[in-house]
Amino acid sequence: MNSHRINELIALLQPAWEKDADLNLLQFLQKLAQESGFQGKITDMTDDTLIYHLKMRGSAQTEVIPGLKKDYEEDFKTAILRARGVIKE
């Protein structure tokens, strides 16, 4: 894991954990795993799961994931035409 990902995870984790300060770190990570729908062992949970869950935590379920937002098209026809190069940016 590179330092950028570590810094991003810590920046997202700190304010969220402060809201549940009564939990220790492992309890808080378990809570995040349950909220995100992760069903495996906590040791198998990826940092991507944590990062995206922390980014999306508290937002509407219909909101677009930040990493996918740049490629998101409301209209299917526009998305197909853009993918085929008919519509240029």
Descriptive report:
It is a single chain. With 89 residues, the protein is an all-alpha fold. It has a domain at 3-61: Conserved Hypothetical Protein Ylqf, Chain: A, domain 2 (Orthogonal Bundle), CATH 1.10.1580. It contains five helices and no strands. α1 crosses α3 (47-56) and α2 packs across α3.
* Rg estimate, integer Å: 17 Å
Which residues sit in consecutive blocks of at least 5 with pLDDT less than 50?
none
Structural class: mainly alpha
Shape: elongated
Mean pLDDT: 85
Per the CATH scheme, the topology name of the domain at 3-61 is Conserved Hypothetical Protein Ylqf, Chain: A, domain 2
SSE string: HHHHH
Number of helices: 5
CATH architecture label of the domain at 3-61: Orthogonal Bundle
Q: What profile does the largest beta sheet have? A: none
The portion of residues forming beta strands comes to under 5%
The residue fraction in helices comes out at 55-70%
> Based on the structure, what is the oligomeric state of the protein chains?
single chain
Q: How many β strands by DSSP?
A: 0
**Ends apart, CA distance between termini:** 34 Å
CATH homologous superfamily grouping of the domain at 3-61: Protein of unknown function DUF1040
CATH class of the domain at 3-61: Mainly Alpha
